[in-house]
Amino acid sequence: MSTPRTPSAPERSAAPGRRFVHRPAVDGGRRRVVVGPERANVVVRQRTAAVVLAAVGAVAVLGLLALALGDYPLSPSQVVAVLTGRTDGFERVVVVEWRLPRALAAAVFGAALAVAGGVFQTLTRNPLASPDIVGLANGSFTGMLVALLFLGGGWTLLTAGSLAGGLAAAVAIYLLAYRGGIKGFRFIVVGIGVSAMLASVNTWLILRADVETALFASAWGAGTLNNVTAQTAYPAAAAAAVLMAVLPLAAPALRQMDLGDDMAQATGVRVGRARTAAIAVAVALVSVVTAVAGPIAFVSLAAPQIARRIAGAPGIPLVATAAFGAGLLLASDLIAQHVVPLTIPVGVVTVVFGGGYLVWLLIHEARKGR
Amino acid sequence: MRARAPVWVVGGLLALAAAVLLSLLVGANPQPPSAVLDALSGGGDSEARFVVWEQRVPRTAAGLAVGAALGTAGALIQAFTRNPLADPGILGVNSGAAFAVAIGIAFLGVTTPAGYVWLACAGALVLTVVVYAVGAAGGPAAGPVRLTVTGVALGAVFSGLTTGLMLTRPAAFDRMRGWNAGSLLERGSDVLLPVLPLLAVGLVLAAAVAPGLNAIALGTDVARAQGVHVGRVRTAVLAAVTLLAGGATAVAGPIAFVGLMVPHVVRWTVGPDQRRILLGTLIASPVLVLLSDVLGRVAVLPSEMPVGVVTAFVGAPVLIALVRRPKASGL
Known about the structure:
The complex is a heterodimer. By secondary structure, chain A is mainly α. Chain A has 15 helices and two strands. A two-stranded antiparallel ribbon of chain A has the order 1-2. Chain B has helices at about 5-25, 35-40, 45-80, 95-110, 115-135, 145-165, 170-180, 190, 195-215, 220-225, 230-250, 260-270, 275-300, 305-325. Helices cover about 75% and strands about 0% of the residues of chain B. Chain B has a single domain, classed as ABC transporter involved in vitamin B12 uptake, BtuC (Orthogonal Bundle), CATH 1.10.3470. In chain B, helix 3 (about 45-80) packs parallel to helix 9, helix 3 (about 45-80) packs across helix 12 and helix 4 packs across helix 5.
């Protein structure tokens, strides 16, 4: 990692200048810990590390709950017994075959969407930027609608349609924005244009369909885990995990790019190449998730903002973002399944509770700021 | 005016006149141009008079008002947040209006555009006030970013509630998907007239703050040094955006894209002066809305494509072609 190792003792005495700190390089007064062996260590801000640990703990608890709750309720100790291989039989079937695919999908998909959002917000330095800008959500919804309305449906076809639609949208945007190179703002404008056209197509298709089909399509369009099975969840989760593991190769560059392209270039980052790689990874992450679960809204937008505000970080902390995304989607799916009396798509819960939480954070932040 | 009107103003006004004429001449119920002109001047047979005065004129007026309001609101909010991705819906206008309309459809038995308009207006105004209260709670230092994030978050909460409500009530869903597409169909004077005062106040405010926005674009310190009352300008901008976007959405439902993209296209043509951008947007946005509406009337005969669906198809190719120009400047 490129962050210089900094002795932490003298910094403790410095007054924390919260509001004015924007760059890690002048991160005066923040406690940091050095993680890892000599020579290969990473400097981590203590607060970020604590936040990540807490979030991972929360994800574990939520995951345990997701495996325990349902029509056939189990106690947490029973779940742990199954997971450690001490119980067999029906309980094992319930946990491993019925509930694990969905719980795992929720956690990994949440992390994947959040990381993709974090990458986009870092690259564009814009809190409104999310992978939806490149037309992924609308494109996969179009693909799914076409598969449903014109090709007859069936889960395999819907998954294939949504994957194809999302990627086709991304490729179309790339090609339209390419003109002897890719420029950030041209990419965004073309993305918005194509996205808007696809959104119109979707509105029109839903408007023309009969009510029942339109309802089904809209539920999928909100993002749902109701249709996740082991056959779809495990391959998708594995792909997402691999993609997230690849991302840190670009992460040191990402951190510098948060300071702006010029600054990054001056510190030796090959901006163009790093950006293309990071965008490709983010797009792939979202496509994988959307193909299986539909365009789950808002995780990619909210998780980075929540993580940044709780960690009090200058940029977007990607590891914390992943943990918050996983927790957000797991908790939302628990609410969608067990708290709300009717079956509603998880995307609806994500939006309501993720948004509500973000609003609460903002209010809280304002109080503290006074 | 000191000098004569620049070329782009004249060209824009000509385009606007052409769009209005097209909107009056073309429709699903074809009338020869002579019959339309006769009806406009008070003559003609009764059917032509009905088509022109009861259907096309109100619709054209609604298109003009909605287009002008949405475009101006978009230009204002982009200048205010200094965020090129900001659209008028960012302060929660669309989601507030949609939520109120959904409540009306699901629980109050409201079924006509004339009924939706009050609900939508109230919903839009209430939610923007809440967004502003939360977003501005951090004090003057908080700035537009905080407001943007607040608007997005609260907007998401209410659009989620709307979706949840609709997905569990098929009958309401059926009506709501029509409102959601954004349409000028059946928007007679009973829908437009109550909203016109709001739009008028919004436009006056917009004209009043334009010079202040230019100063703020150079930074708040510079603006203060020039004697601009930054806080007052910001409040006026937010009030204008709320009235314009809220009123337009109340009339036609959410029409995306106009407020987001017309200001960019205009800026690339007329330069960074906010006064020029606002004037250009005011002229160009109704052109887009009217042309889209005309296309929507005849594209899928015998039924009709809502204007909200068509705007992106008319506007996006123009936008993409413009941004691919070698000289295209940044956002």
